[in-house]
Amino acid sequence: MQLAQKYPKLGSSVDPQKLSLTIKSLGVALVPLILAILRFAGNESIVDNDVIQVINSIATIVAMAGVIWGVARKFKNNG
Length: 79
What we know:
- It contains 3 helices and no strands.
- It is mainly α.
- It has one domain.
- Helix 2 runs antiparallel to helix 3.
- The two termini are 27 Å apart.
């Protein structure tokens, strides 16, 4: 059983069979959090400061845009 079918609130407003863009974007937002945890745990060899900054910036922009677009679409289609 798919997650969107089991939990309808997580479903897309465009296609209820698929996971919503908002939830997918929140998943992307976890990337900087995971990298921060790795750095805090002392895994400096995995992450370089410049690379971290670029990844964090890209992930943050993509996640924010996806969340905003997903929420707007949800309100438009269900509102």
